[in-house]
Amino acid sequence: ACIPIIKVSNTAGIPIVLFNRPPDKSDARSVAVVADNYAHTKETVASLISPAENDGKQHKAMVLIGDLGDINAIGRRDGFDAAVKEAPDVIEVVARVPTEWNQEKAQAGVVNALQANPDISFIFTSSDFLFPSIVSALSSAGKYKKTGEPGHVLLGGFDGDATAYRTLAEGYLDATGVQDVYFEVEACVQSILDERAGKPGPEIIKDAGFVIHRANLGEKAARMWGANVKK
């Protein structure tokens, strides 16, 4: 849908940069600053698998999948799958919840998954904004426990929003993959300046992001956009 706008901007000599999602392939010239969804999700899930290995048991896992019409959701799903594929003795995926980025669908799916698999002990959501649905379902099932408490469900996500910061600080969330919004915005502005100066750069700029967890929260919180929104 944005291709006509990009083409008009090209004709007018106006640099155009897209934030968070790339355009469809075309002959139009633009720059997109996007999260490296696949690699960053794989890294985040691997950071959850590490403590799971220490439990000496195989964890039953649930993953909440976004709208598969969204390239971000596809990358995050594939990154999750790649991470758990490397740890078959530690993780068995027993529930895949299609959410279409919808809270009601997410909550219903998590409730159903927990009823069908009450021994689920590992949950990853493709976006932090779905945490309220997960928390509600876990609380109703008596499974919303802090890290270190008996019955704690290993919990991870992606984005780095204010809810993720709060639940991480409170001890319920184990890790989330943070989109480095500060890098992304800086890259957008720099790309516009470079284009105006006749120094075109790459059409895709990837944000590697970073994983935040309780051990590095003090060090990384200042860079976590959700921590600053919370303030």
SSE layout and pairing:
Elements (H helix, E strand, L loop, with lengths): L2 H10 L4 E3 L11 E5 L1 H18 L4 E7 L5 H15 L5 E8 L4 H14 L3 E6 L5 H10 L13 E6 L2 H9 L4 E4 L2 H16 L7 E4 L2 E4 L3 H4 L4 H6 L1
Helix pairs in contact: 2-3, 4-5
Spans of at least 5 consecutive residues whose pLDDT stays below 50 are none
CATH class of one domain: Alpha Beta
- How many distinct helices? 9
CATH superfamily of one domain: Response regulator
Instruction: Describe the global form.
Output: elongated
Strand content: 15-25%
Query: Roughly how much helix do the residues carry, as a percent range?
Result: 40-55%
What is the correct CATH architecture of one domain? 3-Layer(aba) Sandwich
Arithmetic mean pLDDT: 96
Distance between the termini: 36 Å
CATH fold category name of one domain: Rossmann fold
- For the secondary structure, the number of strands is 9
> Which strand order spans the largest sheet, edge to edge or round the barrel?
4-3-5-6-7-9
- N-to-C order of helices and strands: HEEHEHEHEHEHEHEEHH
- Taking Cα atoms only, what radius of gyration do you get, to the nearest Å? 19 Å
